[in-house]
Amino acid sequence: MEPLKHECGVAMVRLLKPLSYYEKKYGTWMYGLNKLYLLMEKQHNRGQEGAGLACVKMQAAPGEEFMFRQRGLGGGAIQEIFGNVHKELADFTSEQLHDADFAARYVPFAGEIYMGHLRYSTTGKSGLSYVHPFLRRSNWRAKNLCICANFNMTNVMEIFNEIAVKGQHPRMVSDTYILLEQLGHRLDRESERCFVEAKKLGLENMDITRYIEDNINLCNVLKKAAPVWDGGYVLCGVTGSGEMFTMRDPWGIRPAFYYKDDELMVVASERPVIQTALDVEADMVHELQPGQGIFMNKCGEVRTEQVIEAKKYAACSFERVYFSRGSDKDIYNERKELGRTLVEPILKAVNNELDNTVFGYIPNTAEAAYYGMLQGFNEYLNQQKAEDIEKLGANVTHEKLHEILSRRIRAEKVAWKDIKMRTFIAEGNSRNDLAAHVYDITYGSVRPDVDNLVVIDDSIVRGTTLRESIIRIMDRLHPRRIVVVSSSPQVRYPDYYGIDMAHMEEFIAFRAAIELHKERGIEARLDVIYQRCKAQLNLPKEQVVNYVRDVYEPFTSEDISEKMAEMLRPEGVTTEIHIVYQSIEGLHKACPHSPGDWYFSGHYPTPGGNKRVNEAFVNFYENSYKTK
After folding, report:
1. Is residue 33 part of a domain?
2. CB 52 within 8 A of CB 81
């Protein structure tokens, strides 16, 4: 209901044939550029604040540009940057643009390596200077470095200090820029290593340069840089001499997939993106493993190496619940299973009045969970029908059988996403009134004062849209009860690995827990939790314990859900309201291959997560809780 800003998207394309090959076979040397566009468009859900692309031209001669970049801001950034690329081609004739050898030398963005990025800010920092790819320039091709990433580091200042102590003076304190400088420094050292080897071999001038470009090892660069990184990341990079790499964090938090044939290699954040863009089967697309890097040298030779030892696997479960495209075969089935396993708590919420219950969903990311929920209820109803028929025994009649078999799960298109409302009205009742019209309802789909109305969504995080829009709109149908269902568990903790969930007070689950402390007269517990968190602020991150989990310890999940329902009730709405959440156990059963659940459980996979969540509670306590 409340769109989350989240993980960015990455895409890379490396052509393995001369541009003339693609001109002859596909009618254009822009084959790689076009594939990059497809990979980025199919991942537009991962970043609507900005986009960028970079290109490396490996055939350029000295004095000619060999690295190109375009970046743009806003939801239309993909179209903007590719439009700008095509504008740069306007000065060339049709004959020149169809001469692949000419293009390989002189036409901008006619290269063998392409890198794309889609950005969602998770730090609050915005502007073109924060849009990837980031570029570090040098007159030596092998020392030019361009990177983009889907990531968030929890320990930016630690990385900053690690490079500052060596004498570097970064001009920005952002995780991408700091990583660029750190990697750039290690790339310089790797280049110098190759230079020393070349001199020992008696090489001179261009022969030294060629030796460096032929022997530089980006895995060495990453092995020196990565051990200090604490966070979830997929990092992509390319040098001016044509070396490229993609590396995944050792916990496997962020996803990365790749595909290679004899024409190209591609990397993307999601598997179905590659399947669609290249028309290949799922088993032909491979997942990069935790701590692993995939490398391709200037000659097109590919290798995978374990850059850093894999740690406890913690693939982000929110990828499965919400972020990734539902067209992936596994994700689709997992989302259905998340809905299917909610039958029992929903039945409890509607007082087992199945015949008087209408089921719907809030468009449109919850649709797969909705189908799963319906499947679960159909299975339940079939079991009931079988039992009712068995009870008839010898008294079976056509009429009784017809009555039993006629029972159906009542599924309706209850809610419609009418238009995409813009938040140009900044505050007050006018904005709330605007939010109340984001969705519309199907009048007549519910019998007034008779039917329960169950609507499912993939997540309820902040509760703002629920209070200001959804519940009020559903209430117009005058149902007997409104049951709002989340196919994922209660979001209780901030995320520090790429999702825009950083402040404790944003979460309705956290606010409900604080209110329950007040109601039950146990507020002193919050003071103790604060003191414990405060005492850890200056400890090394490896020694920090997540004491914020104690906020929830006195209450059951049902306690918190009931309190949420009270807090989210709009003024004037008297209908009975229930909120049902998926359990953490149910999440792991439905999504067995993505165990990362820190935003639900508080079990952060990295030490930096524990440190940051304690800091977040201290900030809440000092700046919000104690000031009221």
Report:
1. yes
2. yes
Strand partners, 234: 150, 248
Please, which residues bridge with residue 316 across strands?
596
pTM reported for the whole predicted model? 0.89
Of 274, 292, 313, which marks where a domain is finished?
313
Tell me which of 313, 338, 363 is where a domain ends.
313
Candidates 72, 94, 99, 101; CA nearest to 85 is 72
Give how many domains the chain has, as a whole number: 2
CA distance 137 to 184: 9
- Does 4 reside within a domain? no
Euclidean distance between CA atoms 41 and 283, whole angstroms: 22
Q: Is residue 520 part of a domain?
A: yes
Residue 616 belongs to what domain range? 319-625
Do both 143 and 234 map to the same domain? yes
* C-alpha dihedral, 316 to 321 to 325 to 327, nearest 10°: 120
Q: Are residues 228 and 269 in the same domain?
A: yes
CA-to-CA dists, residue 133 to 21, 84, 116, 277, 604, angstroms: 28, 16, 7, 21, 28
281/357 same-domain check: no
- Which residue, 107, 109, 100, 105, is CA-closest to 18? 100
Are 22 and 136 within one domain?
yes
- Between CA 254 and CA 252 the distance in angstroms is 6
Q: What is the mean pLDDT of each run of 10 residues along the chain (628 residues)?
A: 60 97 96 97 82 93 91 91 95 94 94 91 61 91 93 83 67 74 93 95 93 94 95 95 96 96 96 96 97 96 97 94 86 96 97 97 88 98 95 90 94 78 45 61 93 95 89 94 97 85 85 97 97 96 96 98 96 96 97 96 96 95 83
Taking the C-alpha atoms of residue 427 and residue 173, their distance in angstroms, rounded to an integer, is 32
Cβ atoms of 11 and 278 closer than 8 Å: no
Residue 1 domain-assigned (yes or no): no
How big is the CA angle at 278 (ends 590 and 149), to the nearest 5 degrees?
65
